[in-house]
Amino acid sequence: MRPIFHMLLIAAMFLATGPALAGGIKTVPEGNRFQEQPNVPGASVRRTKAGKTSFDAKYEKVHNLLARDGKLMDKIKSTARAYGIDPIHMIGAIVGEHTYNVDAYDRLQSYYVKAAAYAGDSFRFGYDGQSVADFVARPEFSKCAGKAGSYVLWTCRESVWDRQFRGKSVGGTSYPDNRFSAVFFQPFFAGQTFGLGQINPLTALTLTDMVARISGYERLDERKAAAVYEAIMDPDQSLAYMAASIRQSIEAYRSIAGMDISGNPGITATLYNVGHPDQRAAALAAKNKGGAVQWPEENYYGWLVNDKLAELKALL
Predict the structure, then answer these.
(1) Which of 17, 97, 134, 170 has an alpha carbon within 20 to 30 A of 67's alpha carbon?
(2) CA gyration radius, the chain
């Protein structure tokens, strides 16, 4: 059990309410900023059509899974408490992922069975014959070596990739104009996010310190890809990484943009979908310098969560 002072700290950070919090923190209004749902990306549309289903049908399927599975709902609630967030944020992320990215299984047990299929297999993170562990040992990443904590370390490495390697030829090797996670952390053709929480392997590595500290799971290592996949496929660990991701987004917007997004599940769902909360919070902070307040906006994924919020809250 975590110390009482840790619980009080989380409560102070995340449970405060009101139009303006200490230090000038502004509370993001409830609901959607857009009257109509923003366009759904073509890839999601094509994937859904290929499965001979619809977004409405996929939403109903994941909603029914959550409504029927008391064991899963209990896990969601207990995990949310441990990370100091409202469980509705986790519900929103699960609904968004299984409506637009994948189709839900009918039972939680199916996720456990699927996870077991990945255990013990020999996976490797790398690109063009070079492991990611060797790649990040290059001199270009030396500025990241002294970073303390998995979140700061991997965020630094991803930044170096974007600036010095992405879409460029370095040392005779041409690197794709694509995300670090897609290039080095996608050994399967089927995609790069997995399990109940649809966690990206790089996201798991980034959040492993928080998850180890709060949930007690073993820290992940980029040289042990199978262990990373086991973590993101296993429903219990996947929920921990989901909660950690949401908490990180809330913290980023509070500390960088001066905004409390904990009362708007559509915004946290949007950030769960698009990632990089620090960068997005910094961009919003820059927009808000010396002018009228601009609130963060939901995308198609977060819009659905806010639109269905009454139904989703009823699950709790």
Answers:
(1) 17
(2) 19
Alpha-carbon distance of 183 to 117, in angstroms, equals: 24
Q: Is 37 left (phi over 0), alpha (psi -120 to 50) or beta?
A: beta
SS3 307: helix
Quick: pLDDT tens for 284-301.
999 999 888 999 999 999
**Closest Cα to residue 198, out of 124, 106, 303, 272?**
272
CA dihedral 10, 275, 239, 313 (to 10 degrees): 80
**DSSP H or E stretch at residue 170:** strand 169-170
Residues 278, 3, 24, 269: what is their CA dihedral angle, to the nearest 10 degrees?
A: 40
Give the C-alpha separation, 246 to 22, whole Å: 21
Q: Which residues have C-beta within 8 Å of that of residue 267, sequence separation ≥ 6?
A: 28, 253, 261, 296, 298, 302
Q: How many CB atoms lie within 10 A of CB 134?
A: 11
**Phi, psi dihedral angles at 188 (to 5 degrees):** -115, 140
Rounded Cα distance between 230 and 227, Å, is: 5
Q: How far apart are CA 211 and CA 205, in angstroms?
A: 10
How many Cβ atoms from other residues are within 10 Å of residue 286's Cβ? 9
In this structure, what token pair is assigned to residue 99? 């409506």
Question: 126: which strand partners?
Answer: 131
Q: What is the pTM of this model?
A: 0.87
**Highest-confidence segment of 11-15, 125-129, 197-201, 260-264:** 260-264
- The alpha helices in the chain, defined as continuous H runs, are 4-14, 42-50, 55-68, 70-83, 87-100, 108-116, 132-135, 150-164, 180-184, 201-215, 225-233, 235-255, 265-274, 277-287, 300-307, 309-314
